Each structure stands twice: as structure tokens, then as C-alpha cells.
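Reminder to self: C-alpha cells first, then the designed residues, so the page reads top to bottom the way the pipeline ran.
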């Protein structure tokens, strides 16, 4: 029996991962994953047309994980000037079925498909096999989602929790909040717990004179182009040439991430685990193993004992959201192709 081939994609503000999949007892990759720079394309339809022109295969349906809320088959992409419409993609690409889902909802679907080597455990605890699970993903923005067990399988739920109010936990975080309020008015967790958040923290430390920017780093910033965040992370991780301002920026970012990961764990009572995903956690993994991050995750006042019962992991597979989008297709769309 010939199994239908379908397309799954993880649309990011920086990059887009695309792959073709089918189903043979379990999710099976039909092609190698292709990564494209999202900003090189004027819209999703143009990007997908280029990918499909190189594949020369008919697809039965498409699933796209997108960074932002999906409303009635449409999504205005966070941190990207695109509006995506399921019906328009169907027409332009001549595909019978197109489904948009939140990218963190897609990542949630990947949890059943990840292998042991795809996860690093930061805080071990007795896992509730059917317990709720939470995902927090700092990248270009900050995504959050969760899963609940319905008695037969896990159901995934998207959220926009990353846009909730930033709640500082220390004197320096209070100063950070006041600094950013002057610029943004409302300060969400995404403003301090994402790629842009790292740069916001760095600017705060420099402008408020918590640390000085060394001249050699200023020169490097001039060569780094429009995105200074990779350089800040790289410099913070360089143990041979210590840079206090970069180390402090990533340490403060890690503490804020730990606090919000713990908040999410409490909100959904994630006895099945809290999972860190997205583009940043693996890149700053040494800092996530330090005291500042784990202390912030566990320090929950009267609920500190409860949070210690929640396992904490980092997803290190960079294609988790793509795999999850494909798994969503298997669960929700693939059966319709075989009727």
C-alpha cells in the first residue's frame, strides 16, 4: 500500500525547517530536512514553492507550526511581517488540506517522539507517567504550551503566556523592569526571556553602569551586524577571555528563565515535567546547570516543596517543533487521507 506523503514545517522568525513525511507504523521521514532563512522570502507561499520545486512530489496535506496565535485558520506571525492564511496556501500550492498550529503546540506533540539522547535533565524527580507536561521555549520570542492526559492520549494546548507580565524577583530585576518600562510601557516575559530579551538585559547592564563594555567587545559588535545576541552568548561562554558584562547578562537571563519555567510548572501542575525548548536553552546550557537558574526554578515560597517534585529537562533536538508538526499531521490529518 502506498502511504500518502505530507509536508511539515516549523516557521521561525529567523529560520524555517521543512520536511516531507509519511507513515509506516510510525512517523517516517520521506526527505531530509531543509532549512531556509525566513527573511529571504516575501511570504510563506514563495518559500514553500521554492522547497516543493526541488522535491517534485505531490503532497497530500501540509502542517505548519507558526510563532503566534492561530485564529480561524489565519496567523499574524510574531516578530515577522507575514500573515498566513490556510485557504490562500491551499489555493497557491494546490494542496487539499493545510493546517496552521502554534509552534509550541507543535513542540508539545514532539514529546512522544523524542529519544533519550534528545533530552538533558537538569532537575530529576519522580515522573508522573500521565501527568501534565509544560513547554517553555525562548528563541526569537517566548513560547509556552502544555499537555494534559485525557485518559487515552495527551492533548496539546497553545498559549500566549510569554506575553504575561514580567515579575522581578530581585533588586536588579526590579531595576531592569523600570528600565524597560520607560521604553516599552508593558514589559512581558518575552521582553527579558528571549533573544531580544538577552540584548535588552545587556543594554540595561551597560546603560545603568552595572558593568562596563570592554573596548575589544565594542569593536566586535561593530562587525557583528544587526543581531548582537550570538556574540553576547559566545563571549559569555568563553572561559579563556572572561567578559563580566556578557556573563552577567546570560546569568540574569537564566535566572529569569528559571523563574518563569517554575511559574509555568506550577500553573499547570506539570508532574509529567517541564521542558525547555526553542533556540536558546541548548546554546546557554552551561548556565542552566548553574545555581542561579535552578534556584530560580525551585524558589517558589510555600510551593517550593511541590516544585521540587516536577522534573525539568532541556530538549536538545533542534528539529523538535518540526517533528511535532509532523506528528500532529499523523494524529489529526493522516487518517482522513486513507478513508
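Designed residues (339 positions):
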Amino acid at each position: 500500500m502506498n502511504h500518502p506523503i505530507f509536508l511539515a514545517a516549523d516557521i521561525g522568525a529567523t529560520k524555517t525547517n521543512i520536511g516531507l513525511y509519511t507513515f509506516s507504523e510510525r512517523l517516517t521521514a520521506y526527505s531530509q530536512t531543509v532549512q531556509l532563512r525566513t527573511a529571504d522570502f516575501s511570504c510563506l507561499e514563495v518559500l514553500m514553492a521554492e522547497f516543493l520545486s526541488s522535491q517534485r512530489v505531490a503532497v497530500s496535506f501540509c502542517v505548519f507550526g507558526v510563532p503566534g496565535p492561530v485564529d480561524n485558520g489565519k496567523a499574524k506571525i510574531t516578530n515577522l511581517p507575514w500573515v498566513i492564511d490556510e485557504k490562500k496556501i491551499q489555493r497557491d500550492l494546490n494542496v487539499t488540506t493545510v493546517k496552521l498550529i502554534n509552534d509550541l503546540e507543535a513542540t508539545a506533540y514532539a514529546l512522544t517522539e523524542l529519544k533519550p539522547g534528545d533530552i538533558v535533565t537538569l532537575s530529576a524527580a519522580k515522573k508522573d507517567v500521565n501527568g501534565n507536561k509544560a513547554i517553555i521555549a525562548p528563541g526569537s520570542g517566548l513560547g509556552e504550551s502544555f499537555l494534559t492526559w485525557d485518559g487515552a492520549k495527551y492533548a496539546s494546548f497553545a498559549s500566549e503566556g510569554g506575553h504575561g507580565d514580567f515579575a522581578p524577583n530581585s533588586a536588579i530585576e526590579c531595576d531592569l523592569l523600570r528600565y524597560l518600562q520607560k521604553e516599552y510601557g508593558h514589559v512581558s516575559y518575552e521582553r527579558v526571556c528571549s533573544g531580544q530579551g538577552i540584548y535588552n538585559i545587556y543594554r540595561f547592564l551597560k546603560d545603568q553602569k552595572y558593568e562596563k563594555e570592554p573596548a575589544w567587545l565594542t569593536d566586535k559588535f561593530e562587525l557583528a551586524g544587526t543581531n548582537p545576541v550570538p556574540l553576547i552568548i559566545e563571549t559569555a561562554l568563553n572561559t579563556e577571555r572572561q567578559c563580566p558584562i556578557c556573563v552577567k547578562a546570560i546569568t540574569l537571563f537564566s535566572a529569569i528563565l528559571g523563574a518563569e519555567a517554575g511559574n509555568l510548572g506550577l500553573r499547570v501542575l506539570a508532574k509529567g515535567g517541564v521542558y525547555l525548548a526553542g533556540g536558546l536553552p541548548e546554546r546557554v546550557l552551561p548556565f542552566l546547570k548553574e545555581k542561579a537558574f535552578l534556584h530560580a526554578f525551585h524558589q517558589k515560597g510555600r510551593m517550593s516543596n511541590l516544585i521540587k517534585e516536577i522534573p525539568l529537562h532541556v530538549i536538545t533536538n533542534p528539529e523538535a517543533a518540526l517533528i511535532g508538526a509532523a506528528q500532529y499531521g499523523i494524529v489529526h490529518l493522516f487518517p482522513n487521507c486513507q478513508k
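The first strand starts at residue 6 and ends at 11.
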